[in-house]
Amino acid sequence: MHHQNIWATGLVALAALPGAFAGLYPKSSPVLQVDGKNYDRLIAKSNYTSVVEFYAPWCGHCQNLKPAYEKAAKSLDGLAKVAAVNCDDDANKPLCGQFGIQGFPTLKIVRPGATPGKKPVVEDYQGARTASAIVDAVVDKINNHVKRVGDKDMDSFLADNAETPKALLFTEKGTTSPLLRSIAIDFLGVVTVGQVRNTQKEVVGKFGVEKFPTLLLLPPGGAEPIVYDGELKKDAMVTFISQLGAPNPDPPVKEEKKKSKSAKSESKSSSSSSSSSSSSSAKTESKTATPEAAPEEPAEEPATSSSPVAPAAPPIPTIDTAETLQQECLTSKSHTCVLALVPADGGGDDEAEKALASLADLAFKYAQGHRHLFPFFAVPAAVNPHAATVTKALGLESSSSPVELVAVNARRRWWRRYEGPHDLVNIEAWIDAIRMSEGTKHKLPAELIVEPAPVKEEEEEAKPEVKEEEEASTEGSTADAPEPETEAPAEESTEVAKEEASETPIAHEEL
């Protein structure tokens, strides 16, 4: 309880300072300021991946992170969004409560759904508090809409949506760069972006490409390709591609602006339009206006709500390191955990997303009812190499499922596998069976169990308070709790953060 008194004393002292509770990032900052009213439109409905920092201006860790976070924003400019939410602002507390924010700073990566219209995937960022680590984590989550084109599928690539312009990048690289992925997002639904490797001799010969990288623009209707001879930088490339189609606006155009333009257009053509064409126009306008109406309203509701609880369940936490997975769930003192093991090629799969959503809804349901439940974690093999070790040890490496749900109890040395549909009803029945100690248990392989990491004396003193905060988080408490004393960035000094922020800029504008 002692750190609550320190926190309260700090608040009183800060309150005496003019502008003490102003936002941490000024308008001139490269970090995008987001609030409860515009979060949905700027972040949730965006085609771009975002990293969002939930902070309080009085938080020392947040102030230490600021230089590195702003550097990350500069490095990711044009590739992804770097945003921040001031949880000390009363208007933003419902939004911070929606995400279960308990300590500051908390960083979350928001990635658009695999297909348009799907809810974004929100993951906790648990990496180092450095610009390079944040940039690498965000770049890894940028959706890839670039089509890989080879000798065997070139004809189908050209024939698919033949009326849509196409851009082809010929390169010596086997991977798709963040720059090209971001360009594909800019022109999503407007220009189809593809990539051809230099090893695809037939395609390279067909277009007479002799040097790499080379960017070609393919107009519809079989017109001659247009060769790009400018600098391989995003702004110049976007300008080049824009001659065959304008990039998507981001944030999306507000409904009011669309209505205004639509009204002017209808006014000019109303005298010559028949009743049938007017009916058709009305239907078209209705279809285009409906999606645009969605961004603003959901974001406004929490701001006027007296409760911090939002209708949508927050996603379950993601464990992206072997050490965290072991210390959370696989030590000889660890209690029951439910792990969603997502194979490297399972990210974005409908069934995997369905399973993760069911677990999120179930955890949220228990939290709302103030009922105790063991923790759920997502463990994607794409970012956590230990996921493959666990999968192999449990004999699940040959499974074709896009996600494996297992319950493990290292303290009692057992594990259970879920083998049913990934809907909420069936998963909840499985969870209930575990709680009631029903069903078949398997012996947990001894090689997976590790000893707990040694804890320093000062950390042992703080541990009961941290545990208390974690349990409060499970029960859906409010977002304005003091920052935990054992939070990882506590050892990071202002000098270290400034030194890291002054390093050579991180380059991601290469093909």
UniProtKB/TrEMBL annotation:
Domain of life of the organism encoding this protein: Eukaryota
Signal sequence extent: 1-22
Pfam families: QSOX_Trx1, Thioredox_PDIA6_C, Thioredoxin
Keyword field contains Nucleus: no
The keyword Disulfide bond is annotated on this UniProt entry: yes
Biased composition (Acidic residues): 457-473, 482-494
Thioredoxin domain boundaries: 11-144
Intracellular or extracellular location(s): Endoplasmic reticulum lumen
Region (Disordered): 243-317, 450-511
One GO cellular component, as annotated: endoplasmic reticulum lumen
Coiled coil: none
Biased amino acid composition, Low complexity: 268-293, 301-310
InterPro entries: QSOX_Trx1, Thioredox_PDIA6_C, Thioredoxin-like_sf, Thioredoxin_CS, Thioredoxin_domain
Matches recorded under SUPFAM superfamilies: Thioredoxin-like (SSF52833)
Protein name: protein disulfide-isomerase
Species of provenance: Sodiomyces alkalinus (strain CBS 110278 / VKM F-3762 / F11) (Alkaliphilic filamentous fungus)
